[in-house]
Amino acid sequence: MKIKVQNLGVIKQAELELGDLTIICGENNSGKTYVTYALFGFLATWRDGFEVEIANDIIDQILNQGLATINLLTDIDSPEKILSQASEAYADSLGEIFGTNRARFAQTTFEVFLDFNRDFFDDVYETNIGARGSDQQIFSLIKPVNSPELTVTLLATKENLNFPRQIIRKIISDSIKNILFSRFFPRPFIASAERTGAAIFRKELNFARNRLLDELSQVEGEKDRFQLLLSKGYGDYALPIHKNVEFLRNLEGISKRSSNLSEINPGILDDFDDIIGGRYVVTKNDELYYIPTGNKKAQLTMDQSSSAVRSLLDIGFYLKHIAKIGELLIIDEPELNLHPENQRRIARLIARLINSGIKVLITTHSDYIVKELNTLIMLNSDKPHIQQIAEKAGYKQDEILAASRVRVYMAEEALIQLPGKSRRSRCQTLTVATITPDFGMEISSFDTAIEAMNKIQEAIVWGEGF
């Protein structure tokens, strides 16, 4: 999956291709969060952001004959055209994604590109749509393996069917979107940089609902209340922040579930508990505590716990209760409030997640995380002395990373070719960092800052050379 953006915040133009591990580095206010939030927004909303056009005669066949077959190669637009329309529709909604004025993104473009060289139709697709609150099945949608034909069958009798045509059209459109695109777009989970504060005030933070309830109490008449519920204007905060708050507000329900990851690789959860030095517990009364290892009697609230415990809260609950293979975990600044040693351990945990089948995207300022990931890449060798180093240093085999699975980008100024321009211009963009199996990632901004500090300290100690 590749995205291309123009005029997104300070980013004039940039391209980004997702790897199994994607890293975005750069100075403050360089556009990292803008790109990350825009990507998350698309992955979180693409199913609802556009519709596949379904011809009226297909709807007529379903209603009149009880059956219609849709050839996905000839009866709908090409996947490329559908994706282009979806990208354009999403760009128009960026104001809502970022919780700001739509005019701020009036010149922004957001394009998604997929590799369509593979066979779309090699998987089977089958779903039944039932009536809400009833066991009755209304529609059946089936696409056999290695077939481009989707068969829609009406299961309810005409007397019991009162579905509006637009609902039928949406049901078919949603199924086609799943068939064409779901394999390319992983379900995202994001830990935003605001997560530490949200962990403390999780019960107080309920932006839209609290204000909506206040306004509903002042409105007379059911019709007016209904119109208010349908109206927009509650998006004061970016979608990733809303998602974080809603996730933390529902920890009691979430804690009753077990993640796919916890079943196939429980050792990752043990390593996570070692990093935070304890575990999280949610009581039946929805009280959240942190219990340090070796002191079961101690129950610390989030405001009594360390900032590191708070910053890793949503990540811990995601891993233990939500995470599924094939998803995308996005962490904005995983180094938040962590000691350098724990930053290294988080890097190793990220590698284990990738090797377990979960994709990860991080934005980071941490030289410790980048260097530790570099080590994991450089340890991916069958040379005897490197294997000995890995063993002596305590690295596990499932922490080793292949360079080919990693994509690294620097948010910085660079000379780029803008559309319609004959010469390259210096603009804010994402530049691709070089990654090699022998030397890992080349990220110059960290090296420049470290070299500058070393030079000053050498001059202080030796009294020369500065």
Automatic annotation (TrEMBL):
Show the Gene3D superfamilies listed in the entry.
P-loop containing nucleotide triphosphate hydrolases
Q: Please name the SUPFAM superfamilies in this protein's record.
A: P-loop containing nucleoside triphosphate hydrolases
- Cross-referenced CDD domains, in alphabetical order? ABC_ATPase
Name all Endonuclease GajA/Old nuclease/RecF-like AAA domain ranges: 1-370
Q: Which PANTHER family match?
A: ATP/GTP PHOSPHATASE (PTHR43581), EXCINUCLEASE ATPASE SUBUNIT (PTHR43581:SF2)
Q: What is this protein called?
A: Endonuclease GajA/Old nuclease/RecF-like AAA domain-containing protein
